[in-house]
């Protein structure tokens, strides 16, 4: 029997899910979310393109766990083409890559499958100069975040301030938030707003994501996980650095643990939905700019 090389997609799902479960169970009230990133979305050193959806989540988690300074990645072949070499003994991280099955006679696509592909971080190679951050001010706290303001405005979402809770109200299709002054700083405000904005994308008239679960149910916990990952993606896109837990985050963690332990695919499904939400918002705001 020929020995299988590398890891399968299922292997990657199992490994990443175990990492998150272990991080949550060993954490305290100040548990640090492993999908929070300070330097934007993980990107490919060769192409310059950002990784999206599940791969964005996987590489953010890996960067967090390994304490790599920057989220810059590439395959061995890509690093070699850049004149860099992966250091001996370095362990690969894995992303999922979409491939197509083709009919040998007609070249028509007959199916789609996913495989795991190994990549290495810039910290694992030599001969590569890491580029400076485009805007180092994005890592400073207590900013006004004008870019985030403009982004939210272009979504067209109805946002109302008042009260002491943050939530999305489907019946009025509105996001309800406490006054800005109630938050510790601008970063905390936008992290919460982006969480609710991700919920907003799931409405029937938008992405039509299942959101009807009662508090404490798996459906509710899953949607909260989608919103939390979506908020992290948006925060890194907007240069908003915030990792403060919500006041009710202990209850969320309990629900997350239940769905993560029930299925290795849960975190990947949540990341895929969060990716769709951020892409929807980016496309929506781009259209409004063009108009």
Total helical segments: 8
By DSSP, the count of extended strands is: 9
Q: What share of the residues does DSSP label as strand, in percent?
A: 5-15%
> In order across it, which strands form the biggest sheet?
1-2-5-4
Number of domains: 2
Q: Tell me the major beta sheet.
A: 4 strands, mixed
Average pLDDT value? 83
Describe what you observe in this structure:
The radius of gyration is 20 Å and the shape is globular. The chain has 2 domains: 40-132, no CATH class; 133-291, no CATH class. Helix content is 43%, strand content 15%. It has a 4-stranded mixed beta sheet. The chain has a 3-stranded mixed beta sheet with strand order 7-9-8. The chain has a two-stranded antiparallel sheet with strand order 3-6. The longest helix has 25 residues, at 266-290. By secondary structure, the protein is α/β, with parallel strands linked by helices. The chain has 8 helices and 9 strands.
Quick tags:
9 strands, alpha/beta, 2 domains, 291 residues, 15% strand
Short structural summary:
This protein has 291 residues and is of the alpha/beta class. Helix content is 43%, strand content 15%.
Write the layout of secondary structure elements.
Blueprint: H1 9-26, E1 43-44, H2 53-66, E2 72-74, H3 76-81, E3 85-86, E4 93-102, E5 109-121, E6 125-126, H4 146-155, E7 158-161, E8 167-169, E9 174-177, H5 186-201, H6 218-238, H7 249-262, H8 266-290
Parallel strand pairs: 1-2, 7-9
Antiparallel strand pairs: 2-5, 3-6, 4-5, 8-9
Helix pairs in contact: 1-7, 2-8, 4-8, 5-6, 6-7, 6-8
